[in-house]
Design goal:
alpha/beta; Spore Coat Polysaccharide Biosynthesis Protein SpsA, Chain A
């Protein structure tokens, strides 16, 4: 059974200052998510599903659907505030999206196979898709077997500001124990990576394994997303900025009997947290093309 690739492309990109998913960065005008699709096809994925917003639907269809659908089955779903389980209504004054847990939940109608979930504005590397695709291809849709692609922290930093990363704790068999979100992570002038928490600075090793939201699921996760979303609403309906994050769903799934296998990639992740990252991303894509990892035009 060929796995599906789910791409979360509804984010606003607040720190970046625009809709970065639509930025054309490759030598022939490709976006980062086109490289993700290209890598997924090479790794044996059979379908791609995008989560987008209604206000970019037309632009998205014109820019991507016709181009990519010549090579792989493509579908999309809309992440809207009112796309909610029965009996739940949007609280008055709520304008902020519900978070990545909600984004995965609304994709249920389009996915029937084990699937990988990624961010639209991140470059994960060909090896990561192959490793995750191989793992997912061996699963049946009803298994509570999930996975997380782990990256070395040093390979995920931005040169233009601090980042937030989920630090991965796992056991001797590579099974997830916990995910701990750390904010304000950066490399100091002396070379040490630290994270700030209030007034305290705590060092982190370069090889600390972190999650970059490249996760693997079976369709069993949709029921868990719905359950946890209902819990989230009952607890935080009054907090108009609260979000349900997919790492929270993954961590809680362990208590439901799920196992989460940590897969590893030595690739250097890159993405666009800040607008200043754009030139570096363009140069890194150019280098990948020059090295022969990608053609000059992905879809020629």
């Amino acid at each position: 059974m060929k796995p599906t690739l789910l791409i979360l492309a509804a984010g606003l990109g607040s720190r970046y200052g625009g809709i970065k998913q639509m930025d054309r960065l490759g030598p022939s005008g490709e976006t980062l998510m086109e490289y993700s699709v290209f890598d997924a096809i090479r790794a044996g994925f059979g379908k791609v599903v995008f989560v987008i917003r209604r206000d970019i639907e037309q632009d998205f269809r014109e820019a991507f659907m016709d181009k990519i659908s010549r090579f792989v089955e493509v579908d999309y779903v809309l992440q809207e505030l009112d796309n909610l389980p029965p009996g739940i209504t949007v609280p008055e004054g709520r304008t902020k999206p519900w978070g990545t847990g909600h984004a995965v939940m609304v994709a249920e109608p389009a996915i029937t196979t084990p699937f990988a979930m990624i961010n639209a504005d991140d470059f994960y590397g060909r090896e990561a898709y192959q490793n995750l695709g191989d793992y997912l291809s061996a699963l049946s849709p009803d298994e509570l077997s999930y996975s997380l692609m782990g990256y070395k922290l040093a390979n995920t930093l931005s040169e233009h500001g601090s980042v937030s990363r989920a630090v991965v704790e796992f056991d001797s068999e590579g099974k997830l124990i916990s995910l701990t979100e750390r904010t304000k992570i950066y490399r100091k002038d002396d070379g040490q990576i630290i994270y700030e928490e209030g007034e305290q600075q705590t060092p982190l090793a370069d090889n600390t394994i972190v999650s970059m939201n490249m996760l693997g699921f079976t369709p069993t996760v949709f029921g868990l997303c719905k359950k946890y979303f209902e819990d989230f609403i009952s607890e935080k309906a009054g907090d108009l900025k609260a979000e349900l994050y997919i790492p929270t769903v993954m961590s809680k799934s362990i208590t439901e009997g799920a196992s989460v296998q940590i897969l590893n990639s030595d690739a250097s992740w890159f993405g666009m947290t800040y607008r200043e990252d754009k030139d570096l991303v363009i140069s890194r894509l150019r280098a990948q093309v020059d090295a022969g990892y990608y053609p000059e035009n992905l879809w020629a």
